[in-house]
Design a protein that fits this description.
Shape of chain B: elongated
CATH architecture of the largest domain in chain A: 3-Layer(aba) Sandwich
Number of domains of chain A: 2
CATH class of the largest domain in chain A: Alpha Beta
Radius of gyration of chain B: 25 Å
Shape of chain A: globular
Helix content of chain A: 25-40%
Number of helices of chain B: 14
Largest sheet of chain B: 6 strands, antiparallel
Distance between the termini of chain A: 20 Å
CATH superfamily of the largest domain in chain B: Succinyl-CoA synthetase domains
Number of strands of chain A: 14
Strand order of the largest sheet of chain A: 3-4-2-1-5-6-7
Oligomer: heterodimer
Largest sheet of chain A: 7 strands, mixed
Structural class of chain A: alpha/beta
CATH superfamily of the largest domain in chain A: Succinyl-CoA synthetase domains
Structural class of chain B: alpha+beta
Number of domains of chain B: 3
CATH architecture of the largest domain in chain B: 3-Layer(aba) Sandwich
Helix content of chain B: 25-40%
Number of strands of chain B: 18
Distance between the termini of chain B: 42 Å
Largest interface: A-B, 61 and 51 residues
Strand content of chain B: 25-35%
Order of helices and strands of chain A: EHEEEHEHEHEEEEHEHEHEHEH
CATH topology of the largest domain in chain B: Rossmann fold
Number of helices of chain A: 9
């Protein structure tokens, strides 16, 4: 079992003819993801990587019945691509693109209120993978394995680190969701945790947060109400100074808000074990 | 990009908001000339951080000599890591009332929030804590911006109904900074009502989204070079690196922001102090590693470097060869520990060992190793 994505999900790739879009489409195909088409304005009617290319997302959905999309277009065009996907009827939109202006994303969030069936993952995220079934995005499938641990994270490489440690220890994953490092995002920690709680195939939960904002605290509030999932959380950025943006646009402490300490305390209060290092996570899950 | 006060005020003026007469001075003579033109002035340090008043960065001058002396004292001062490049000499205002006006991104709401309060002049965080009801708030629709009636409500909610006409018009102008300049935060505090009834921006803060700078190249060209930040951060930016200076002595390179932050935490846990945050992104290409090492080695405090690379698809032997080449090109002699994972990681570790670089099996092991090696170097 899994959340959001499985082997039946029909995926289009927006920006399929680009270098990144093409490379990762092949990766997605190689693990069995049902990629049914792609978009690239002006290249409609052609074929790329064995699937039909369309000028627009609406054309692609009409012709293929796709219900999910992976977005690999450059930042100046990414916000429009998200809205285009939602308007075309896509219900799972995964935006990998980094560097989208925050005001663009605020407008996107308002736009998406008109499409309540559309779920956005990202932007600035590695995407999601249901090991052994399908992925949308750039998480290397080699380091994942099927199982019952749900993993949700704001970071890319840290997610890979933890996934590969879990796999090496024989702890497979139900679904891995990278929600992204931007301050204004689609699905939140809390949204993803709610989905994992409802998934009978998930028994354990790993949350990888970082400094900035209060999404981790909101997820902790949800878990504090009691959950059947055994959960471990890790927060990076304990040593980060106030007011400095640590790589991710969203990883910034403002005043005394968004600190690692506040997030760790929220999880502890909710009965969630907090790992000191990512190396400790596997042992704490057992 | 956080603009300096005078830059923010120029932007506000371009939006039609009244600002006090003021002149930028790069040296004491220019400050004296500013006094001759404006009369009594406040001489204000221009740095993109708060708290400059407490740090001695604002002085009142009621004579030409005082203006000159204030500029002498303030220019070149260090305020929270920023060297003051110039001062802004601004005519004193005849203040009747001080108001707070600002907007910022409310991350929880995923929206912009406009805030207005009759309690101006204090820090808004303090007002929010002591009397939260004194701040009126509005979440404007990001597609159409605030409507007149919404702003009228905001002004009356803040208890400023007697000023509703000038304030509604002014807030609409300030809001233009969002669609026109991709502003993330703007603050006019205090927004001064003079004894003659004019409404003027006493101070101004403005932060433009770094992700949107491609839409505002003019702003970057005009203002970007004036802000004298940390020299290593400036150099790193030139080389296209994501780099933040910290005050320790162990240089850090990682791929991915989360992994890099996690690496800083590991070094601190092992008893060391990171000198920087440096995310080289995916792939860990040899050229990028060399650029990152070059910036880190500019800092004379650095006693050793830890590189932590998670390679999903990246080949470990290629990363190792790249690191060796970078070290040799830079003639680096300080301790270097490299932790990497990925395909062919064993071969990669062999290459490192052969070249006298310490390989780490896990991030934690590597952090302990670099702390040990840098300590040994001191004694």
């Amino acid at each position: 079992m899994s959340i959001l994505l499985d082997s039946s999900t029909m995926v289009i790739v927006q920006g399929i003819t680009g270098r990144e879009g093409g490379f990762h489409t092949e990766q997605m195909q190689s693990m069995g993801t049902k990629v049914v088409g792609g978009t690239s304005p002006g290249k409609g009617g052609t074929t790329h990587l064995g699937v039909p290319v369309f000028d627009t997302a609406a054309d692609a959905v009409r012709a293929t019945g796709a219900n999910a999309s992976g977005i690999f277009v450059p930042a100046p065009f990414a916000a429009d691509a998200i809205m285009e996907a939602a308007a075309a009827g896509i219900t799972l939109i995964v935006c990998i693109t980094e560097g989208i202006p925050i005001q663009d994303m605020i407008r996107v969030k308002e736009f998406l209120r008109g499409y309540p069936q559309a779920r956005l993952v990202g932007a600035n995220c590695p995407g999601l993978i249901t090991p052994g079934q399908a992925k949308i995005g750039i998480i290397p499938q080699r380091i994942t394995s099927p199982g019952a641990v749900g993993l949700v994270s704001r970071s890319g490489t840290l997610t890979y680190e933890v996934a590969s440690a879990l796999s090496a220890a024989g702890l497979g994953q139900s679904t891995i969701v990278g929600i992204g490092g931007d301050p204004v995002l689609g699905l939140t920690f809390r949204d993803v945790v709610e989905l994992f709680v409802q998934d009978p195939g998930t028994t354990n939960l790993v949350l990888i947060g970082e400094i900035g904002g209060s999404d981790e605290e909101h997820a902790a509030e949800l878990l504090a109400r009691g959950s059947r999932l055994k959960a471990v959380a890790f927060i990076s950025g304990r040593t980060a100074p106030e007011g400095k943006r640590m790589g991710h646009a969203g990883a910034i402490i403002s005043g005394n808000r968004g600190t690692a300490k506040s997030k760790e305390e929220a999880f502890r209060k909710a009965g969630v074990a907090v790992a000191e290092t990512t190396d400790d996570i596997v042992g704490m899950l057992r | 990009m956080k603009l300096l006060e005078y830059q923010a005020k120029e932007v506000l003026a371009s939006l039609g908001i009244a600002i006090p007469p003021g002149v930028v001075a790069r040296n004491p003579a220019e400050a004296a000339a500013a006094f001759a033109r404006l009369g009594p002035v406040a001489v204000k340090a221009q740095v993109p951080v708060g708290g400059r008043g407490k740090a001695g960065g604002i002085k009142l001058a009621s004579s030409e000599a005082e203006a000159r002396r204030a500029a002498e004292q303030i220019i070149g001062m260090d305020i929270k890591g920023f060297k003051v490049p110039l001062v802004y000499c601004e005519a004193a205002l005849d203040i009747a009332r001080e108001i707070y006006l600002g907007f910022t991104v409310d991350r929880d709401a995923r929206a912009n929030i406009l805030m207005l309060s009759a309690k101006g002049g204090m820090e808004i965080e303090q007002v929010a804590e002591e009397s939260p009801a004194a701040i009126a708030r509005l979440y404007p629709n990001p597609w159409r911006g605030p409507l007149d009636f919404e702003l009228t409500q905001l002004v009356f909610d803040a208890g400023l109904g007697d000023l509703s006409r000038p304030l509604v018009s002014l807030i609409k102008k300030l809001y233009r900074a969002i669609p026109d300049y991709d502003a993330l935060t703007a603050e006019i505090n205090p927004l001064v009502v003079t004894k003659r009834g004019e409404v003027i921006a006493g101070d101004a803060k403005l932060e433009i989204d770094d992700n949107a700078m491609w839409r505002h190249k003019d702003l970057e060209e005009k203002y970007g070079a004036v802000i004298e930040g940390d020299p290593y951060e400036v150099e790193a930016k030139k080389r296209g690196l994501t780099y933040v200076s910290l005050d320790g002595d162990i240089g850090i390179i990682g791929n991915g922001a989360g992994l890099c932050m996690g690496t800083l935490d590991l070094v601190q846990r092992a008893g060391g102090r990171p000198a920087n945050f440096c995310d080289i992104g995916g792939g860990a290409k040899a050229e990028v590693v060399e650029n990152a090492l070059a910036v880190i080695l500019m800092n004379p405090k650095v006693k050793g470097v830890l590189i932590n690379v998670f390679g999903g698809i990246t080949r470990g032997d290629e990363v190792a060869k790249g690191v060796v080449t970078a070290r040799d090109n830079l003639k680096m002699t300080l301790p270097l520990v490299v932790r990497m994972s990925g395909t062919r990681e064993e071969e990669g570790r062999e290459i490192l060992k052969r070249n006298g670089i310490e390989p780490g099996v896990s991030g934690w092991e590597a952090a302990k190793k670099i702390v040990e090696l840098t300590r040994a170097g001191v004694t």
